[in-house]
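Backbones bend. Shown next:

***
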Amino acid sequence: MLISILSWVEDQKKLKTLNHNKSSEPGGLWTRCDNCGTILYIKHLKENQCVCFACNYHLQMSSRERIKNLVDIGTWRPLDETLSPCDPLEFCDQKTYGERLKDAQERTNLQDAILTGTGLIDSIPVALGVMDFSFMGGSMGSVVGEKITRLIEYATREGYILILICASGGARMQEGILSLMQMAKISSALHVHQSAANLLYLSILTSPTTGGVTASFAMLGDLIFAEPNALVGFAGRRVIEQTLQEKLPENFQTAEYLLDHGLCDLIIPRSFLKQALSETLTLYKGTTFKKRGIIPANLQDQFNFLTEEKIRRKFNRHQNSQNKKAVFKNIPFEKLPEKLSLLNKFLYDPSTKMFDEAVLKSKDLEAISSTYEEYEQFSSIYREILISLHLLLREDMDTIYKT
């Protein structure tokens, strides 16, 4: 009996080792199918586009692998590669949001949960966005929303067909309302692309596609394709059962269930996806009597690197200004008039002694440095007061001249 228990423990350890990090681990050779449990050789699995040989179950696939299998060789041109997220809310749970981002970026070698760019599918130009579930569950933050919006606007200006491959757990909670705002932003950009410019948008649903992504751009496609047995939904199955007080069907929130109820147009196995897309794009491209669309005049151009750097520096300055509250707490305001008057004398008469000679003669480095820091703080406050007075006087003079 003891031997059987020890062997069972060893088997469980082996299973955990096989399932640990799966194909994302560079040194791993084997993985296990999530559906049937068959042990699979990773090299052969990738050659089969991450589809199980035993049960044809579609395992998760990285964004780079999807691009490699869909886009013609040598035609992929990425967009907004340097766009990376920040931490505007300074969110912290067990770890800070910044640490989670850094860990995800090092593990996946991605800046965020999506890759966008242009390429050719059987010599037909398309604008393609591919989400990656391995980056924080493919959650949609402000950078994901911005990259998708820029891709849509670029496709609208250039007249490209738009394809978005969805794999996400929903909006990113660490960014709060900023992540929810991306739903409306992407939807409005899609409205211009589809309704104003009359261009095609294809949405491809993979497992899983849930939450805010399902509630926005994933279900807005002119044609909606899905992979077999893909999990697609908004809320969780258990939440819906508890709310409705009903037992849901076994195939609820699957691609087949969506197809039966008219929410999906076609279920395509991964091995036939490129061929199906090629035939669909060829049919659309050869359509006669197309209705010409109109691009709004206020459709903004894409940001260049210089503009992005200006925005980033402006945000950093804003963050530094927020930290001034901590500085003001340490300032003795009861001595402020005396210090400012002394500072004013020093500005107009450099011979004025700014620092206490006793402190300087004592050669106490900490006291001297604290004295310098104190006067630097007062000088910055004095400078801001002078600038404010100058602006107020200029406004008063302008009003006088106008009257």
The chain has three domains: 2-47, 63-311, 323-402. Residues 2-47 form one domain. The chain is about 50% helix and 10% strand. The two ends are 102 Å apart (CA to CA).
